[in-house]
Each structure stands twice: as C-alpha cells, then as structure tokens.
C-alpha cells in the first residue's frame, strides 16, 4: 500500500518535498519492521502470513481514515468503538431477520446507520459548541449502553451469515483479500478528496485555525458536521466488514477500540491539534500498529511487550512531529527575516 | 455605552445569589434529590451498608478526580491515570512476591512508581512542550504495557490479610470506611491548594490563557509539571488501594477508569476548556454518578441502562450550560436593546 502513495506523491512532487513528507518516518518504520522481522523469521512474509497481516489491518485502516478526517478539523471521535459495535451487531441482526437480503443493501444500511450515529455526534459538537472530546466520550457510553441493552447476551456467529458474506474476507483478488481491497479503495478515495477537492482543503483550514476559517467565510459548522458524518459512515463500513471478518459479534464488540484508532492516526503523523497530516499517513500508522502484533509473534518476542512498544511508538511519533514543526518554524523565521 | 448598561443590569445580583445557582450548586442539589428519592423509593437504600459499599466503590474515582480537576482547570488532560494505577499495582505485586521487603516498604516503593510516571508525563508535556492529550494517550498504552511486562498475565494475591480487612473496615456503626479519613485529608489538601493558595488561583489564570498567566508571573511549566506529579502520585495511591481492596495485584487493575474519572470531573462543572471548576463541584459529580449507579443497581435496573445514564448525564451537563448561556445572551441583548431605545427616545425629546 505504501508503494501506491510513493508513486503518487513521487509523480506530483520533487524528490525533496517527497522526502520531507510526514508519512515518510512512519512508512520507514513499517518497512524496517517488516525487513527485520523477515530476517529473523523468513516465514513472516509467506503468503498465508501476509494475508493474515492484511486482514488484521483492514478494519483499523478504515477506522483510521475516518478518524483522521475528524482529527484534521481539530476534533476527535471517541465513540467509534461503540458505533462499530452497534453496526456490527445490526449487520448480524439484518442477516438473521431478513434471510437472503442482498449484501450491497447490508453495506448501505451499515453505512447509513453509522452515518446517522456520526451525525448525532457532529450535531452535538457544532450546535452546542462543546469540545468533541467530551461529547463523544458521552455518546461512547450512550451508544455502548444502547448496544448492550439491544444485544443482551445474544451473539451472532459467522455461521449465521450467508456464505458469500463471509467469503469477502477469505477470497482474494490478485492475492489481496476483498475486504482489504475495499480498505485500499477507501484510502485512495478519501486521500484524493483531502488533497484535491475544495471542501477537503477546507477541513485543513478549519483545523489549523477555526476562527480564521470562519472569518474567511468557510462554512465551519457544516464542514465539521460533514466530517463527523463521513467518519460515522466509514465506521459503519468497518462494522459490516468486522462482521464478515470475525467469528462473533455481540455486546462487547469494538469496545476499547477508540484509543487504538486515535493512536494509529497520531502515529501516522496527523497532529492531534488539527490542521496537518494525511489520511494516507493515518492508514500507514494503522498498518504499522497492527503489523507490530504479528511481528512480535513471528520473532517470538514476549507478547507482553506489545502494548509498551505501541506506547513508545505513539510518543516517538509526537516527538518527531514536534521536532519537525519547530524546525519548520525556525526556517520560516529565517527566510522571512531575509525578505525584510 | 452598552457595556455600562449591561453592568447596571448585572450588578443587581449578589455574589451569594450567584453561588447558589452556580453549576456546583446545581450538581449538589441534584445529588441531594437523587439521595432523597432513592431513600424513599429504593428498598434497602437507606442503610449504613449502602454508605459503606458506595464509598468503597467510589474512592478510586473520587481520589483520581481531585488532581484531574486541577489538571483540566489548567487546560491540560491526563488520560494515563488508570494505567499508572495498573502499573503501580503490578509493581506492588511483583515486589511483594520477589523482593522480600516488608509490606510498608513495598507500598511506598509502589507509590513512588506512580510519582515517576507522573514526572515522565510532566517532562514530556512541559519540557518538550507536547500536547497533553496526545502524550497521555501514548503513556496510557506505555504504562499499561509496562504493567504487562512487569507481571505478565499472573496475579499476586498473598498480601497480608490484615491489610485487606483494614481497607474494608468501617468506623464503628456508621458504615463509613476507615480509609475515608485519609481520603478526606487528601480532599482537604487539594481543596485548599486550589481555592486558597496563590498556586491554585494561578491554575485558573493558566487555564484561561497560558500567555497572560506567564506575563503576570506564574511559572507555567513549573506549575504544570507539579500537577502531573500530583496525578501520578494519587494514581499510585489508588493503585495500592485497589490492590489491597481486591487483595490481588494484576496487570489489568483499573482498566478503563480514566474515562469514568474525566466524565465525573466534567459533570462536576469543570470546563474542558480550562479556567473553570471547583473541588466541591467535582466531589458532587463523582458522588452523583456513584449514588445513581448504586441505587439503580439496587433497584435492579439492568447494568446496561447505567452506562446510558452516565453518558447522558455527561452530555447534558456540557450541553446545558451552553444552551442556558445562549438563552441568557438573548435575554440580555433584548434588554440592552430596550434600554438603548429608551435612552435614545429620551435624548431626542431633550433635543
């Protein structure tokens, strides 16, 4: 996946600005991780293990792309784990109640459901003008409560779903699992939107200075609301794919996922204070974090180290980010001083 | 012009009147109402057993909420508190099992781990100037990860029985846990620190504007660093308390507690933007969630409804002030409008 980005940015920009891109440190870390692990355990890159790595990364990639949209506008959505759980359980219910329902319709329903839940977050954030951190912390509890009272102790197992639906995460096209292809398509589409489409650029402007964006005449509330809806819809998509990929969905599905997703986005070079970073970076961050798990198993490192390493990664991502921005600020100051 | 007019309108309200309708006061009224309604309608609620169970349940969140309130008032946040408590618990377990030290030394050393964790957060946030939200998401994973590294997936449970009994013991027939004496001391410490010392007053200034605060001579970095030490230390104490209460040290003690703590603090009227909040309000918020959860549980309301209640309380508590502020602003504007119109017609008749 990183090769796609490299070709794309490489074609558009000179080599120098390419090397300065925010994604490079993360992508480098990912490549280094894969190389070192493969040297220690050559079976790490066997087709089966590669497929597992991709399948494990798929859901987090989509979630990270959605979360990046929201974080770039200087907001955050902590309710994604609960939304994913609701949609995943809803998907199971759909197959249970309407046997033979067309699969595209299920995807549509999941994305609409997620979008509506995202819209509730977005409306509360933009209308009440309360920080997203607080609102989505509240809706995280509320959505989870709704899910647990809806699901109770009921669980849907992969056997309850149609076979073609489960096949989405088993069958491969050109060696890539179908649901991973979906994730890649999402990254490309949203990445293009954020880079080249006006309303995508607006999100960056809003994130770097909401007041200035408002003065400039941008529809700040509308764009922020749209970011939350888009994130909700992507979480909905991830929820449907989750049901296809994993064995069972129930009341606890997706709980605790929110911090993993935020971590992936931050590791991917999207600043938590908004305005910078790309969805491609966020996606690479997600791949990096999910690959570490596999790499630790492959190199027989004590599995207890995994979470500590994730923590170190997040901290180093923030520190690298800080160093880069301090250096840029100094460079700007020098060049401006010269102009005067 | 309009400013003097507004001032004359606002002046009529006294400071005491303001305090009686402030956010803290409202939370405390709601708390009292919930307690009264529970006593009247929920069976077995009005008993000393309730007091004991409820307080033992609430102590970890109550303790963590105190330094958290100070941190949020100063405009920062600490998501790593529950992980620090977990790491402390894990270290305590391993030290007790392997070091051969007596339990008091083990406990002191464990709390010290919390202090070091807090200092690490403080160093990253104040010295390197990194955003606290991002840093503490990182240390949330790091400290919990270190807890796993230290103790693995084992449990240590052979702590001295007397300590567990002591933690669960009550003061006479009141049902109040003995530990509450220490908790009240810590509450008093933070209340005095925040409300009656220059340091505490400075935190409000910090929360409003770091720049303005540093201009009036507040040592911003210094103050924030000590706040993170305070959260670390209290988290360490909570880790020790949890270990003794559960009579078990494991890597997952206190998991997920950070969000409950923050929810309680915000419900207690601390503004997430910083610069606003009080210790009585925070205690009201913690107890409100605690009492509500406990009485609903006694009334056999399913556990799931409880999460919805917590979430809704949080959303309402933050949305309500901004709705009332909006309504007040409308009323104020229409009043000003009337007064301005009145004075302008007065002026025209004079001329």
UniProtKB/TrEMBL annotation, chain A:
**Where does this one sit in the cell?**
Cell membrane
Does the record bear Membrane in its keywords?
A: yes
Pfam hit, one: BPD_transp_2
The UniProt entry lists membrane topology as:
Multi-pass membrane protein
Q: Give the InterPro entries listed for this entry.
A: ABC_transp_permease (IPR001851)
Residue stretches spanning the membrane: 21-41, 53-72, 79-99, 105-125, 132-152, 172-194, 224-243, 249-272, 279-298, 304-324
Print the keywords alphabetically: Cell inner membrane, Cell membrane, Membrane, Transmembrane, Transmembrane helix, Transport
Q: What interactions and quaternary structure are annotated?
A: The complex is composed of two ATP-binding proteins (LsrA), two transmembrane proteins (LsrC and LsrD) and a solute-binding protein (LsrB).
Q: What does this protein do?
A: Part of the ABC transporter complex LsrABCD involved in autoinducer 2 (AI-2) import. Probably responsible for the translocation of the substrate across the membrane.
Write down what this protein is called: Autoinducer 2 import system permease protein LsrC
Q: State the organism named in the record.
A: Conyzicola nivalis
Q: What is the lineage of its organism?
A: Bacteria, Bacillati, Actinomycetota, Actinomycetes, Micrococcales
TrEMBL record, chain B:
Report membrane topology: Multi-pass membrane protein
Residue ranges of the TM segments: 26-46, 53-73, 103-124, 130-151, 171-196, 225-244, 281-299, 305-327
What's the main place this protein lives? membrane
Record keywords, A-Z: Cell inner membrane, Cell membrane, Membrane, Transmembrane, Transmembrane helix, Transport
Which Pfam families does the record match to this protein?
A: BPD_transp_2
- Keyword Coiled coil listed: no
Q: Which organism is it from?
A: Conyzicola nivalis
UniProt subcellular location? Cell membrane
Question: Is Cell membrane set as a keyword in this record?
Answer: yes
Q: Where along the sequence do coiled-coil regions lie? A: none
Q: Mind telling me which InterPro entries this protein's record contains?
A: ABC_transp_permease
Protein name, entry field: Autoinducer 2 import system permease protein LsrD
């Amino acid at each position: 996946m990183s090769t796609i980005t490299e070709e794309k940015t490489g074609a558009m920009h000179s080599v120098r600005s390419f090397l300065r891109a925010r994604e490079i440190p993360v992508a480098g870390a990912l490549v280094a991780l894969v190389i070192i692990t493969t040297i220690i355990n050559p079976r790490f890159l066997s087709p089966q293990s590669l497929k597992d790595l991709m399948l494990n990364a798929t859901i987090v990639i989509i979630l990270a792309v959605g979360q990046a949209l929201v974080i770039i506008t200087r907001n955050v959505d902590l309710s994604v784990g609960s939304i994913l759980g609701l949609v995943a359980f809803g998907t199971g219910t759909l197959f249970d109640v309407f046997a033979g329902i067309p699969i595209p319709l299920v995807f549509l329903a999941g994305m609409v459901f997620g979008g509506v839940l995202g819209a509730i977050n977005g409306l509360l954030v933009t209308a009440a003008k309360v920080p997203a951190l607080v609102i989505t912390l509240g809706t995280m509890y509320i959505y989870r409560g709704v899910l647990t009272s809806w699901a109770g102790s009921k669980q849907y197992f992969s056997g309850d779903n149609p076979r073609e639906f489960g096949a989405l995460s088993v069958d491969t096209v050109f060696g890539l699992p179908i649901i991973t292809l979906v994730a890649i398509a999402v990254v490309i589409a949203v990445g293009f939107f954020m880079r080249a489409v006006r309303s995508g650029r607006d999100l960056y402007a809003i994130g770097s200075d909401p007041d200035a964006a408002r003065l400039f005449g941008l529809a700040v509330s509308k764009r922020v609301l749209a970011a939350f809806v888009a994130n909700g819809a992507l979480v909905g998509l991830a929820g449907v794919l989750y049901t296809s990929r994993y064995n069972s969905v129930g009341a606890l599905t997706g709980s605790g996922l929110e911090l993993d997703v935020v971590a992936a986005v931050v590791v991917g070079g999207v600043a938590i204070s908004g305005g910078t970073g790309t969805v491609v970076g966020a996606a690479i961050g997600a791949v990096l974090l999910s690959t570490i798990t596999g790499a630790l198993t492959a190199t027989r490192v004590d599995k207890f180290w995994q979470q500590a390493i994730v923590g170190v990664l997040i901290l180093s991502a923030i520190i690298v980010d800080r160093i880069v921005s301090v250096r840029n600020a100094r460079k700007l100051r020098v060049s401006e001083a010269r102009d005067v | 012009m309009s400013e003097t007019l507004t001032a004359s309108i606002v002046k009529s309200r006294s400071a005491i009147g303001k305090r009686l309708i402030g956010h803290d006061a409202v939370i405390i009224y709601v708390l009292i109402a919930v307690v009264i309604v529970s006593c009247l309608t929920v069976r077995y609620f009005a008993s000393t057993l309730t007091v004991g169970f409820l307080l033992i349940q609430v102590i970890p969140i109550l303790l963590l909420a105190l330094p958290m309130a100070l941190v949020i008032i100063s405009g920062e946040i600490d998501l790593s508190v529950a992980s620090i408590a977990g790491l402390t618990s894990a270290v305590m377990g391993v030290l007790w099992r392997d070091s051969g030290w007596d339990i008091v030394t083990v406990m002191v050393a464990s709390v010290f781990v919390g202090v070091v964790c807090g200092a690490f957060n403080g160093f990253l946030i104040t010295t390197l100037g990194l955003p606290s939200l991002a840093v503490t998401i990182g240390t949330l994973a790091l400290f919990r990860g270190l807890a796993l590294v230290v103790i693995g997936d084992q449990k240590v449970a052979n702590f001295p029985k007397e300590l567990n009994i002591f933690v669960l013991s009550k003061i006479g027939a009141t049902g109040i846990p003995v530990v509450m004496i220490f908790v009240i001391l810590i509450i008093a410490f933070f209340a005095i620190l925040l409300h009656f010392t220059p340091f505490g007053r400075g935190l409000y200034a910090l929360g409003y504007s770091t720049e303005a605060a540093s201009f009036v001579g507040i040592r911003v970095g210094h103050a924030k660093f000590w706040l993170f030490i305070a959260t670390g230390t209290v988290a360490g104490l909570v880790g020790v308390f949890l270990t003794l209460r559960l009579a078990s040290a494991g890597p997952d003690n206190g998991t997920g507690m950070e969000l409950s703590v923050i929810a309680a603090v915000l419900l207690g009227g601390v503004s997430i933007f910083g610069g606003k909040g009080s210790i009585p309000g925070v205690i009201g918020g913690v107890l409100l969630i605690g009492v509500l959860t406990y009485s609903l549980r006694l009334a056999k309301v399913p556990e799931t409804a409880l999460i919805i209640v917590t979430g809704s309380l949080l959303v309402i508590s933050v949305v309500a002030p901004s709705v009332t502020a909006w309504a007040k602003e409308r009323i104020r504007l229409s009043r000003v409008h009337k007064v301005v119109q009145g004075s302008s017609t007065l002026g025209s008749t004079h001329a």
